[in-house]
Automatic annotation (TrEMBL):
This is DJ-1/PfpI family protein. It comes from Streptomyces litmocidini. The keyword Kinase does not apply. Keywords: Lyase, Signal. SUPFAM superfamilies: Class I glutamine amidotransferase-like. GO terms for molecular function: lyase activity.
Length: 241
């Protein structure tokens, strides 16, 4: 039995009674068809920070252990199916083509913002392909999210102007200058735009999205499996429950 199967067999026992309630009353306020997958796309590019993309992928994939709703998480690239080399040299293969029309959640990691002449966020901004793809992706039913300096890619796409948002602490002045309404929070939820702070906040962003889309029971059982409790303040434009 592999590690994931073992964790599912042991930890999920305590979640069984909560699954029906989670499916019937998700945190987002909607009642999705539990047979329809929650589709998550994580945007990838050369120079992306390893923890920025791996943490949300792990958390959102792991949520499938604690909800009857199927979860589909994939890596995608605005430049087509390819491999990328991450900030510390990790090669990531099997990346799928850009298809935001097939996603419910789009997650944009950061990386390389301190190295303007290296692969990463600045190179993607200068190239323009990913910001243009992000701007064109916006549609009803899609939540665009980003963490760390990935938020600056959303800014380059014009998606944060006049919107509550946050990013890595060193990029906050740039985000404010570009029109973002920067909040001093770990995660900022403005409905179809959800942003988070620096590198490790990818865990908190993903846990918040799990809580919002799949319910509090799914999120808390997932925290137990991960042995990580969400930290920091979540600023939300949604009414308090």
């Amino acid at each position: 039995m592999n590690r994931r199967a073992l964790l599912r067999a042991t930890t999920a026992l305590g979640a069984t009674g909560a699954l029906a309630a989670t499916a019937a009353s998700p945190a987002s306020g909607a009642t999705p068809d539990p047979s329809r997958p929650l589709r998550v796309h994580v945007a990838m590019f050369d120079g992306v920070e390893e923890l920025d993309f791996a943490a949300p992928y792990e958390v959102l994939s792991g949520a499938g252990f604690f909800t009857p709703r199927p979860i589909e998480v994939r890596y995608v690239s605005a430049t087509g199916a390819r491999a990328v080399t991450a900030a510390y040299g990790t090669a990531v293969r099997g990346i799928r083509p850009w298809a935001p029309e097939e996603a419910d959640l789009l997650v944009v990691p950061g990386g390389g913002y301190a190295r303007r002449d290296s692969p990463g966020v600045w190179a993607e901004i200068d190239r323009g392909t990913l910001p243009r793809a992000l701007a064109a992706a916006v549609r009803p039913g899609l939540t665009v999210s980003a963490l760390c300096t990935g938020v600056m890619l959303l800014s380059a796409a014009g998606l944060t102007e006049g919107r509550p948002c946050t990013t890595h602490h060193k990029a906050k002045p740039d985000l404010a200058r570009q029109g973002g309404l920067v909040k001093n929070a770990r995660v900022v939820d403005d409905g179809d735009l959800v942003t988070a702070g620096g590198i490790t906040s990818g865990l908190d962003l993903a846990l918040w999205l799990v809580r919002r889309e799949l319910g509090a029971d799914t999120a808390t059982n997932l925290e137990e499996m991960l042995e990580y409790e969400a930290r920091g303040t979540v600023w939300s434009a949604r009414p308090a429950r």
